[in-house]
Every structure is written in C-alpha cells, then in structure tokens.
Amino acid sequence: MKSRSEAKDMGTYTAERPRLLFLDTVEAVLRHGPMNDADIIARARDYPYAQSPTSYVWDGIRTVPLAATSLPEDLEARTPVLALGGNASPSVFAHAFPGQVTPVLRATLADFDLVYMARFEPHGAMPAMLAPSPGTVATVFVAFLSPDQRDWLTDIALGFEDDHGPFFTFGELQEIALDIEGLGGRDRVFTYRSAVPAMGHDGAICAYSELPAKNRRLPDFAHPRVLEAVRERQAPDLTFDDFLVALVKDDALRARCTTALRANAVPVELPSYTQILPKA
Q1: How far apart are CA 129 and CA 131, in angstroms?
Q2: How far is CA 240 from CA 41, 49, 258, in A?
Q3: Residue 23 has what pLDDT?
Q4: Residue 228 β-bridge partners
Q5: Which of 8, 87, 124, 203 meets the CB 3.0–4.6 Å disulfide criterion with 83?
Q6: Is residue 20 predicted with pLDDT exceeding 50?
Q7: What is the distance between the alpha carbons of residues 24 and 72, in angstroms, rounded to a whole number?
Q8: Under a CB-based contact definition with an 8 Å cutoff, are residues 107 and 140 in contact?
C-alpha cells in the first residue's frame, strides 16, 4: 500500500489542491490553516452539509442535476461506492475531484440506517456510518468512481488511524436491496466500512436526524445537540462556539472527546460485508 504522502500525488491529483476528501477527513493544512473561527464553527456544526435532493453529476467544474445531463459513457467501467452523510454533499466532490467527472446517484437502501460514528473528525464533526436496522429504508448516494479516483481514495482511506486503530476498510456489501435512481435495483455495492464502533446512548445506536430514512427504528438526534451533549460533559467551561473551535485546534481535547464516546460505543456488524482491503 502506498503511504499517505505518496497517495496524495497519484494520477492527476496534486499536493497543491485542498485535500477535502470523499471520506470527509481534512488534514492539518485545513484544520490549522487559514480558516477563520466562523468557518470552523460552521464546518463542525453543519455536518452533514447540504444534501442534494436529486441525483447529480459533478462535471469537474459544477454540479449538474441528472435530469439536465446524461451519465458518462464509461459508467459500467466505474466502481459504485456508497457516499454516506457529508460525503454525499456536492461540496465534497467539488474539492475532491476538480476537473474529474463523477456521477453521484440518489438511492434507497433497505434494512440499514445512517448512524453516528464514535469519533470526531479533525474538523470537529462526527461522521456518519452504516448500521443494520431491519425495516428501515435509508436514503443514500452512490458515487461511480473511475479506477484512478477509487484507487486514490482507497489508498488514503486505509491510511487514516488513531490510537484506537484504523478508521476504514474497503470492501463489498452484498445481498442487499439497493435501488439506485435511474438504474434500478442492485444487490451489491462497494463501501468504505467504518472500523470504528457507533455512538451509543443507553445501549442503543444513535441515528442521524439530518439524514432521511423511512421507518426509522433507532433513536435519532440532531448533530448540534450531540455536539452540545459532549461539550456539557467534556468542556462545560466553554461556550458552544468556543468548544467547536477548540475541537479543531486542540488535538488533545478532540482525542479526549473521542475516548469518551468510545466508552459507550456499540460495535456494528455487517454480516453481508466482504472485506477486500487491507488484505488479511
């Protein structure tokens, strides 16, 4: 596997452009860089960011609704990968793939929900992850990645870890009921699976209020309320806005908050998931 420094320069990708990744992880250049406090607060508070109401194609320059354009001719050669939570936001693809065409299609996934990962991103948000939930139908997006896009993202994703271990593996979710807008039903899709457990509350996994799902069975909470609950326990002397800024600028505070989340975290099993990378 390539190192993180090698991966960032694969193909047409250069170190000069902002590396706001598909996996919604920002590096030190962004978390300690020129962003002002208002930008930091908005980025932490507003996750999972503006979600498109329809399928779209990032044409390398702008976001175009699928109804106003066509899918690329090489669609069958691309890898369909779940884009969950903030990773489905058009703004992420604008930063991740300048000049690169990327179809991002809205879909429904039966018997799953989108829940909180028990960790904080360097930009202060808590990312979304997939968890089984019988009877629930989650709204998700599927990004169709070119081989270069897929390989670049996978190399980077598998390089992220903390004291608790790696964040992701890459593999295929099989025997599922996925209905992709314009393409119909599929029984498998690729995904970057979280190796981190889900946030728990009274022993239950917590779903994201901001991410739509029908027949939701899990308790759901809005992201700002979850952030506020962590602040009350871990930094009660700070205001909410000051806490969000500190989460980004103070690595020790962010690590302490993540450790607190892990204390009540709930492991998530995906029986229909087959890991491809890293190889066992």
Answers
A1: 7
A2: 9, 19, 17
A3: 42
A4: none
A5: 87
A6: no
A7: 25
A8: yes
